[in-house]
Amino acid sequence: MRTYDNNRNPILPPDIHIPDGEPHVMSDGKLYVYGSYDADMENYCSGEYHVVSTPDGKHWTVHDTSFSAEDVPWILDPSAKRYGTAADWTHPTPFMMQMIQDMIKDMSPEQLEKMARQQVQGDATENEEGSWREGANQKRPLLFAPDCIEKDGNYYLYFCTESGMEGVAVSDRPEGPFRDPVRLPCGGIDPAVFIDDDGQAYYYWDQFFSSGVPLNEDMVSFDTEKVVKNLVTEEQHYFHEGSSMRKIGDTYYYIFADVERGKPTALGYATSDSPLGPFTYRGIIIDNADCDPDSWNNHGSIACFNGQWIVCYHRSSRNSRMNRRLCMEKIRILEDGTIPEVKMTSQGLGDPFGPGERIEGYRVCGLRGNAFVGGPEGEAERIVGICPGDEMMFRYLQGEPVYTELELESGGSGQLEVWLDDCLAAEISVCGEGKATVPLDLTGLERKDTGYEIRLVCRRAEKLEISGMRFLA
Question: Which of 137, 386, 440, 472 is most deeply buried (CB count within 10 A of its CB)?
Answer without folding.
Answer: 386
